[in-house]
Design goal:
Blueprint (H helix, E strand, L loop, with lengths): L1 E8 L4 E3 L3 E2 L16 H5 L2 H5 L1 E11 L5 E9 L9 E5 L9 E8 L5 E8 L2 E9 L4 E7 L7 E9 L5 E9 L9 E5 L8 E7 L5 E8 H5 L8 H9 L12 E4 L10 E4 L1 E2 L5 H7 L21 E3 L5 E3 L27 H7 L11 E8 L5 E7 L6 E10 L3 E4 L4 E4 L4 E6 L3 E3 L3 E10 L5 E7 L5 E4 L14 E2 L3 E7 L4 E10 L3 E10 L4 E11 L3 E12 L5 E7 L22 E7 L14 H5 L6 H20 L5 H19 L19 H14 L12 H12 L36 H13 L5 H25 L6 H12 L5 H10 L2 E3 L2 E3 L10 E4 L2 E4 L8 H17 L6 H9 L10 H18 L6 E7 L7 E6 L8 E6 L4 E9 L1 E12 L13 E10 L5 E10 L11 E6 L4 E2 L2 H9 L6 E7 L2 E6 L7 E9 L3 E2 L4 E8 L2 E11 L1 H4 L26 H15 L2
Parallel strand pairs: 27-35, 37-42
Antiparallel strand pairs: 1-2, 1-3, 1-4, 4-5, 6-7, 7-10, 8-9, 8-11, 11-12, 12-18, 13-14, 14-22, 15-21, 15-23, 16-17, 19-20, 23-24, 23-25, 26-28, 28-33, 28-55, 29-32, 29-34, 30-31, 30-33, 34-35, 36-47, 37-46, 38-45, 38-47, 39-40, 41-42, 43-44, 43-46, 48-49, 49-54, 50-53, 50-56, 51-54, 52-53, ...
Helix pairs in contact: 8-9, 8-10, 8-18, 10-11, 10-12, 11-13, 12-13, 12-14, 13-14, 14-15, 14-16, 16-18
Pfam families: A2M, A2M_BRD, A2M_recep, Ldl_recept_a, TED_complement
GO cellular component, one term: extracellular space
GO molecular function: endopeptidase inhibitor activity
Amino acid sequence: MELRIRVRFSNGLEHDLESRLEQMSALHFGIWEISVDLVSELGSLTTVNNVQSMSMEARYTDETGAHVRSSLLVYAYYAPTRRHLQVSTSSRDVKVGEYFIVHVRADYYVEKFYYLVVSKGIVLLSGAEEMPFSIKTFAIPCSPAMAPTATLVVWDMAREGEVVADALTFPVDALSRNNFSVTLNDKKDKTGKTIEVIVEGQPGTYVGLSAIDHMLNNMDTGENFSPSEVLEKMNSFDGQDIWTSRTLSHSWRSRNNKPNPFVHYPSLSYGIDTFHTFQYAGLIIFTDANVPERPEGCSSGMAACLDGACYQSQKRCDGFADCRDASDESGCPPPDEPDIADFHRRRVNRLERMYHSSWIWKDINIGPRGYTIFSVPVPSLPTTWLLGAYGMNGVQGFGMLASPIQFSFSRPFAMNVEMPSKCRTGEQIGIRITVFNYFHTEIEALVILGRSPDYRFVHVEHMGIVQSYNPRTDSNEHHHLVFVKSGKSAVVYMPIVATTTGVINVTVMARAQMAKEVVTRPLIVKPDGVPQFRHTSVLLDLSQGAYLMKYLDTNLTATPIVPFRRERLYVFGSNRATVSVTGDFIGAVFPTVPVDTESLLKLPDWCGEQTMFNFAANLYTLLYLRLSGQRMPQVEKEAFQYLRAGYQRQLSYQMNDGSFSPFRWDTPPSVWLTAFCVRVFHQATFQEWESFLFIDPKVISKAIRWLLRQQSFEGAFCETTTYPYDRKMNLTSSRIKDPVKYRNISLTAHVLITLVEVSDLSGELGAEVARAKRGAQRYLEKMLHSIRDSKDPYEIAIVAYALTLVNSVDGEAAFNALDSKMKEAAGLHYWGREPVPPRAIRIDSNRPHLLPRLPLKYDALNIETTAYALLTHIKRQAVIQREIVHWLNAHRSSDHGWASTQDSIVAMQALMEYAIESRLRDVIDVTVTVEVPSLPGFSRSIHIDDINFSHLQKIEIPRAFGTVVVKAQGSGAALVQLSVDYNVDWQHLITPPPVSAFDLNVKASYSGRNSSHLTIHSCQRWILQSESRTSGMAVLEVSLPTGYIIEQHELHGYVRSHRVRNLREARFKEGEIVFFFEYLDIAPICVTFTVQRWYPVANMTRYLPVKVYDYYAPERYNETMLDLYNLFVMNICQVCGSYQCPYCPIFSSSIVLSGSIVLISLLVILLHTFR
């Protein structure tokens, strides 16, 4: 490397030193260690004292001719009396427990100097040393607290009270103390199915191990981390400007994610004078001595360049050189330094669900003998694994493997079974069985399909003849023999057809000379047709009597056949019913762990608001269990694990300015969603839980600051988009002929509720929140008169609740206005835009049979309005509460939720507060008996007490029809819910919406030799213009035929191409694609996509559901059936789903001819021909 040095003197003259060639360091490749002796170069010390600065330029040219250059500019230390101290070291790679050798030099008489060592803002060591000569060497012991870097500051009090100082920042290696080893032993298990892992080290050491596929490791997914990453992260713990108080370090980044080589060198202080030397070390000086500081003639708002000129402070590190020497851009983070953490958080993840991406994920404690041994199963597929590990104990601290252990091993014989996890009745599935031979010779493998009453094997007749609808089948065990050459694999397709619905287990076994593999795959079998749901919910309140009886109608007949009609009322065997019982007003607590939109509402959750709902639902349930004295340690453990993951997932929707966006790509932030996130995250900052769930306060404060910037001078909060995702957050005024178009009343109340929640913030931000809260309160008080006469009581409900929370003087007036809009039906109280009819009842034999509820015109709006009204009544301790609770429970759409996310989360909060106040658990003792007259002898009893008070107890009713009789006896209350599912295959039997809101047109086309590619074109639009110009966030759900898939990255590219107006997200899960639109309007918006066959499936169901709906008002929907007749008539050989099909590439005859037999047959034919 060529080095050129130029010296600039204080009189303005410059002098070039002789250029020289430097050799690369023998210790580290790519590093040059350079020293310059200016005294020998310039000839005298006097000349050196006149040096103002020195520039160095390095040029390097490699063997290919490529060249790079770099420059360095250094300035002389400011010392008005020309007194200097210099700190240096001769130590390299200092470890904890070793001594760090320090050399102190002085160019004037020093009797005694003082020193201290500071690390991470803490002074760790201080002392003084006599200095009889011009150089002093002493040693400092390195403690664990000094890692990873520490700064040594040396100073002397010279004559005239002048402070002379110097500093040195040096690295301390703390990772090499905890030395442990990991060994893999693959010789112990002769079958090759397991491998032994031996961990040796200090007894009691905690060791975490992670082994991932090398291909996944090359993607840098973050499962493993290297020592350099640990050191870089630890260097950020100082809390100082790491670019002015750091060591000289460099890390090489590998393109294939190999461990990054890392070098660390001590660094002298970046301070140009004594004052800055202390400042850059993180120290503040309190003294009356003279602390030299270079004079700066810069005015306020300006900063000094190192050459004495001035520049605007705000332009530091802006990427442009404002100083002649570019010193305003020195000490800045590299402009091209990638933000790896942000990249990992926001990149498009290619999730592979077809294989196990991680092998070992385990943590252990080393035993008392200094080792721990355990075994893990070997993955079936051959690949290279990288095993990383780290250890920690109280004596030796933290340690890790310097580089991952690379390991390749495979079983001599393995089998892989691929099949769909879901199908519909009557569909014939070709199970793809792949047999691998990693043995050194050819093997015979016997593939066996297990016997089961739940499925049958599909036979193919001679010459590949087989029917699509009614092939020959049997339920016996089926065998097939294949020959597999060494290092090769063989594929066998075994066709089956399910004979029952529900979850069945399919067992496949492969047997060879040296090993046997058995794989069992679960298969969910659903009825064909379009699913329809009916729900009946009734709260049995035994406070007025000790016995109650209810008759619940399933809305199903004994047979689906209608005499003299072609259509059937429902698909045979699809009629199912479930009775769920719980003693709590809120319903079952944690019916699944965790709970989410799928388990609570049967809705997708690929949006930021739904992710936040999932987090909130789990959080509120945990809070309720704690406040009601029903804590469940095991459930809490699983829920906290999900909350931690949910918190990280939600952060991927947070933008750089702190706001939250409903979608990750190209979507403006949302005031509505940001307020919801801030409210829930602040409620999660529970001190008792910080060890299990920690919410970064910066996440909340950053979001609040953005939120406050969206407030108008009048106090209202304004959304960033024209059309709200949730139309309840209506921006426009509800008053007739209102001169002000946008009032933002409901949105302002929504944000005010959040500001009340975060009122306990302190400091400047707390004061800003208080001012914003007062402004929003005054605005709502001012707008109160304008919403009293509105037909929609939602605004008055949310405003009344918000004003009640802030103890507004107008809260009473808002409460009275709210009560004036209360409606009543069958003795129950609610709030709604239109009267809600009482529950439908059918009288049979003078007995009232309660019919299932159907979607109502304003379901979601009525639920959320009534829930806010209940919260207001609870806060004001009003008399009418129980009747509201009964109405809310009577209008559930499922066992665990209502219409959508926002109405459900508010209803959950309201019922939880009511349940805590009512203390029903103290008096609960109920026995519920369920009888089904259509099933003679069917009677089940459930007992509810204070132990299982909130537990979900279910009774399944097979082939349900007719009436279900429910009897309750005892004291307390019981929430009984009847859920009925059935499928239909006629369009007019699909449940119609209460009002026509969407237009939906779906078409399908086929391509490929056997319709292997299916293109679906769907156009949808919003037609309910009398209600609003646009829908809220709209969702299109398209069911896919079994075995067809589309790659998720194709959908990502489709969304990001902006070819479809308002399309914000598209997600594939097995059997379905979900599209999210910001909104739909009167103009049709069409999507076109192609799915392809991945698993061979024949005799597919003919009709698949396609549905479009408003996510936050699901009663606004349109559902239709997609007719796939071409796939319905295909047999198993047309999709090549059986090894018996002679015209398919996977044909495997039961007779295997050897080469000699083929040759003899050919000779016989030739002789016969030429005889």
